[in-house]
Amino acid sequence: MNKGIDIGIIGAGRWGPNVIGALRRLPEVNANCIADINQSSLDQLENRFNGLRTFTVADDLIKSPEFDAIMVCTPVTSHLDLVEQALLHGKHVFVEKPFGQDPEKCTELCEIAETKKLAIMVGHVFLFNSSILELKKIIDSGELGEIQHLEAHRTNLGPVRKDVNAVWDLTSHDVSVFDFLLDSLPESVSCLGSRRLDPNIEDTSYTTFRYPGSIIAHAHASWLNPRKVRQITVIGSKKMALWDDLNLEHPITIFDSSIGLEQAYYSDSFASHRLSYNRGDVTLPSFPTNEPLFEELKHFIEVIEGNEINRSSGRYGVEVVRTLQVADKSLEAEGAFINTGR
Ligand SMILES: NC(=O)c1ccc[n+]([C@@H]2O[C@H](COP(=O)([O-])OP(=O)(O)OC[C@H]3O[C@@H](n4cnc5c(N)ncnc54)[C@H](O)[C@@H]3O)[C@@H](O)[C@H]2O)c1
Predict the structure, then answer these.
(1) Structural domain containing residue 78
(2) How confident is the model at residue 46 (pLDDT cuts 50, 70, 90)?
(3) For the stretch 57-90, what's the b/e string if a residue is b when 16 or more beta carbons lie within 10 angstroms of its beta carbon?
């Protein structure tokens, strides 16, 4: 008989197989069953993973007493129904980001989970990325000074989604990183988008978040761009940092760059103040890198076992969904800033 935690996976598209691969490297986990409505996606996996059992109906996993937890790796529009069914059948749930499209329903699911003492974890994977954790340490140490603004770029040629726009697909990652780095949630959101591939879905978006303390964080996201970019620039009053997820050796660069007022020059009028440009050393901090998805799933198991506090809980996932919903409202209002009510 198997010992450990039995996990069923739903969704064998682009991301689900990465989740199975990572789960199978966790010693206490049995991840041998996957469901997808598309038989051809399942067929491709049978050759890739030994002993994998495949199902074309998600309910076969959700309703089976064999499983302790269900991983939902399907398109966003299907998340809430699958999460609800899994909770009602007594399973812990890991759901890919973003949690769902309706914050009220997401909240209701959190209440069900809490009543039943089950965990919901949302796959905000960058919260488990060692370079983001390092960037947070650098910010918290005060090395960069006071944070002035942040700017994220997340572009590539595809993959194009049909269920949600680029904000929900890509900027959902950057919002989670901004929230984490700034220890707060956006107060208002402005979003402009461009729909060149599908008349109803923004393939490119420019979203600006206003955080407490007048900090602006901007995120450019696009499926219609020749360059794969995953970067965030943090501008501090003393120094500046660039996070580049595609730079495997040195994901963080710190620039001792700043602009201040020339001390030796005194003037009563701001217009005639002389600015001093500081272009100092550029440093590449070294720290151990990790495999974020593996760390995220390891954390999920620790949460289920009651050993760790959920760092990407359903409750936090609801906050991201609320922010994204406000971005959609702003898109409808041609980029007007809309309050999040926080
Ligand atoms: N954390 C990350 O970095 C990351 C990366 C990629 C995708 N994702 C997330 O993972 C999820 C899936 O993305 P993807 O790129 O794999 O999508 P995908 O479209 O490639 O695959 C989704 C799969 O789900 C299946 N499916 C749909 N409805 C189903 C249902 N009711 N029951 C069973 N199977 C069903 C589809 O047949 C398809 O094979 C999304 O929420 C996405 O945002 C996260």
Answers:
(1) 5-124
(2) confident
(3) ebeebbeeeebbbbbbbbebebbbebbbbbbeee
**Mean pLDDT of all residues in 128-138:** 98
Among the three residues 96, 124, 152, which one is the final residue of a domain in this structure? 124
Alpha-carbon span 329 to 81, nearest angstrom: 24
Question: Does a structural domain hold residue 314?
Answer: no
Q: Of 92, 124, 156, which residue sits at a domain end?
A: 124
Residues 273/267, Cβ–Cβ less than 8 Å = yes
Query: Does the beta carbon of 58 sit less than 6 angstroms from any atom of ligand 1?
Result: yes
What average pLDDT does the chain have?
95
Residues 6 or more apart whose Cβ sits within 8 Å of residue 127: 176, 177, 180, 296, 311, 312
Question: What is the spatial distance between Cα 339 and Cα 321, in angstroms, rounded to a whole number?
Answer: 14
Residue 154 Cβ inside 6 Å of ligand 1? The answer reads no
Helix (H) or strand (E) holding 280: strand 275-283
| Residue 268 CA, ligand 1 centroid: distance in Å | 60
- CA 201 to centroid of ligand 1, rounded, Å: 18
Q: Assess contact for 151 and 218: CB atoms under 8 A.
A: yes
Cβ atoms 297, 280 nearer than 8 A = no
Query: Which ligand 1 atom is nearest residue 82's CA?
Result: 31
Q: Is 131 helix (H, G, I), strand (E, B) or coil?
A: helix
- For atom 5 of ligand 1, the residue with the nearest CA is 15
Query: Does a structural domain hold residue 308?
Result: no
Instruction: Render pLDDT for 249-303 as a digit per residue (tens, 0 to 9).
Output: 999 999 999 998 666 655 566 655 678 889 999 999 999 999 999 999 999 999 9
Whether ligand 1 lies within 6 angstroms of the CB of 54 is answered as: no
Nearest CA to ligand 1 atom 40: 75
Helix (H, G, I), strand (E, B) or coil at 216: strand
Paired tokens of 319:
């906050």
Give the pTM: 0.96
Shared-domain flag, residues 171 and 277: yes
Nearest CA among 110, 206, 224 for reference residue 167: 206
